[in-house]
Amino acid sequence: MSSSTPSAKLLQSTQDPILQITDLAVSYGGIQAVKGVSLQVRRGELVALIGSNGAGKTTTLNAVSGTLPIVSGSIRFEGHEIKGMGAWDIVRAGLAMVPEGRGVFTRMSILENLQMGAYLREDKVAIGADMQEVFDTFPRLKERLHQLAGTLSGGEQQMLAMGRALMSRPKLVLLDEPSMGLSPLMVDKIFEVIADISKKGVSILLIEQNAQRALQIADTAFVMESGSIAYSGSGQELLNDARIKASYLGED
């Protein structure tokens, strides 16, 4: 494992990254929340971004998704600069975000929420097939198809938020704290789905307070401290590193 540098696994890769963040700086409210962050996600890779509250993780994801302006740096998706693009154009390009707190449309039904996920698509047959795949992954959503999203439990809303993102047929999914506030059984289900999505070849950038669970499924991981990348390596390397154990995993 290295400190403040890309992991050896990344350096040895000959595959172009699907997402390349270089020297990213983001400020709001007079505070510089992200300070020169550089990281990358390769095609089909599951990358975890961990760190304490206030480290700048969510700010980084919001900048990538186009919902927060950046001060400087570069964000390249599939080789193209997306800095300054509208969030809708970033979704159209193949990048979807599941925000912290789920962000479902509470006064719309489950079906309407899923349809909103596909609002930029016109391939009706494929949309139907993708919706069926969401139901296969989350049968509970099909059982409650016409129920208002605001009446769902936290776990059901997380399922819906993830299903909605998948309806855009993304190449890269940004997941912000998907297990927050969920029961242990629901956490197990969500992590199982994240691993399955990754196995299907969808790239994932995951922010997760449950650092141990995130590192267990991550190919590569980065640790943020005070707006900067402090450590990086494979998920297994960070799981076994004494500094990470002491600071983030609650182990001596």
Per DSSP, the total helix count is 11
Q: Which structural class do the helices and strands define?
A: alpha/beta
SSE succession: EHEEEHEEHEHHHHEHEHEEHH
Helical content band: 25-40%
The general outline is globular
Give unreliable regions as ranges. Answer: 1-14
Which CATH top level class of the domain at 2-94 and 170-248 fits?
Alpha Beta
CATH topology of the domain at 2-94 and 170-248: Rossmann fold
What's the CATH H-level superfamily name of the domain at 2-94 and 170-248? P-loop containing nucleotide triphosphate hydrolases
Average pLDDT, all residues: 91
What is the terminal separation in angstroms?
19 Å
Largest sheet: 7 strands, mixed
Strand content: 25-35%
Main sheet: which strands, in order across? 1-11-10-4-9-8-7
Kindly state the number of beta strands: 11
- CATH architecture annotation of the domain at 2-94 and 170-248: 3-Layer(aba) Sandwich
Q: What value does the Rg take, in angstroms?
A: 18 Å
